[in-house]
């Protein structure tokens, strides 16, 4: 059975801190790994990673994938209150190339 | 681009009833996937439709069924509702199967409460 474990489950930090969110996975027919930010309802796409060791960056966010050890991390530097959200890791795989989501990390950034 | 539209936004049903949720996919997208997100959990894959055919299914019982229409909009039907069916139901469309490569667009979801 496909499995995705995210840690920590929740995190409370102050503005300006740096955070690292972890995702380990086991999925059949792995194709890629996606990170999403969910604030209220619709998840918002952040990154798609397909190759090991290549860091993807977007402003203060960056992510890297290790396909050998089956994990990914999402880093957020200089956090802001607007970064408060649930961050979801979702490897793509299976028969329909569907997304298997982890339970998410609830990030709260205090002013 | 009009995005993905889901209706209704909220719904309250009684245990044992049946419900139909609707999703209008983004223009040009022929693949629709449905996900169930229980409170405090990540979305779980229900099934995917590609060009009006079911293209894959997650670990959900047969009382969860779906349709995709020629315009690629889709419906999710749930029969014999149970309390545990209370969740946010998300629809995601993509231009092809293998949506991660082409990009998924998620709707804002339907919040279903079963009492």
Main sheet overview of chain A: 6 strands, mixed
Unreliable sequence segments of chain A: none
Query: What would the principal axes of the Cα set say about the shape of chain A?
Result: globular
> Total helix count of chain B?
1
Poorly predicted parts of chain B:
none
N-to-C terminal Cα separation of chain B, in Å? 37 Å
**Helical content of chain B (DSSP H or I, runs of 4+):** under 10%
According to DSSP, the number of beta strands of chain B is: 11
Mean pLDDT of chain A: 94
Average predicted local confidence, pLDDT of chain B: 92
Secondary structure category of chain A: mainly beta
Principal-axis shape of chain B = globular
Determine the number of helices of chain A (DSSP H or I, runs of at least 4 residues). 0
- Radius of gyration of chain B from the CA trace? 13 Å
**Most residues in contact, chain pair and counts:** A-B, 25 and 28 residues
What structural class do you assign from the helix and strand content of chain B?
mainly beta
Layout: helices, strands, pairs:
The complex is a heterodimer of chains A (111) and B (115).
Chain A: E1 3-7, E2 10-14, E3 19-26, E4 32-38, E5 44-49, E6 56-58, E7 61-66, E8 71-76, E9 85-93, E10 98-99, E11 105-110
Chain B: E1 5-7, E2 10-13, E3 19-24, E4 31-37, E5 44-50, E6 53-57, E7 64-68, E8 74-78, E9 87-94, H1 99-102, E10 105-106, E11 110-114
């Amino acid at each position: 059975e496909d499995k995705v474990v995210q840690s920590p489950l929740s995190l409370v930090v102050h503005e300006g801190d740096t955070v690292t969110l972890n995702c380990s996975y086991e999925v059949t027919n792995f194709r890629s790994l996606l990170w999403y930010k969910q604030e209220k309802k619709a998840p918002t796409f952040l990154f798609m990673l397909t190759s090991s060791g290549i860091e993807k960056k977007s402003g203060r966010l960056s992510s890297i994938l290790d396909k050998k050890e089956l994990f990914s991390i999402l880093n957020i530097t200089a956090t802001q209150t607007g970064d408060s959200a649930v961050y979801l890791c979702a490897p793509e795989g299976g028969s329909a190339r569907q997304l298997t989501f982890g339970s998410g990390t609830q990030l709260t950034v205090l002013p | 681009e009009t995005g993905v539209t889901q209706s209704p936004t909220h719904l309250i049903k009684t245990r044992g009833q049946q419900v139909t949720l609707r999703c209008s996919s983004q223009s040009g997208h022929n693949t629709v996937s449905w996900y169930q997100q229980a409170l405090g959990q990540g979305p779980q894959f229900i099934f995917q439709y590609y060009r009006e055919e079911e293209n894959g299914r997650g670990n959900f019982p047969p009382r969860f069924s779906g349709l995709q229409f020629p315009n690629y909009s889709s419906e999710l039907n749930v029969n014999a509702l149970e309390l545990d069916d209370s969740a946010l139901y998300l629809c995601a469309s993509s231009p092809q199967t293998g949506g991660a490569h082409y990009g998924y667009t998620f709707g804002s979801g339907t919040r279903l409460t079963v009492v």
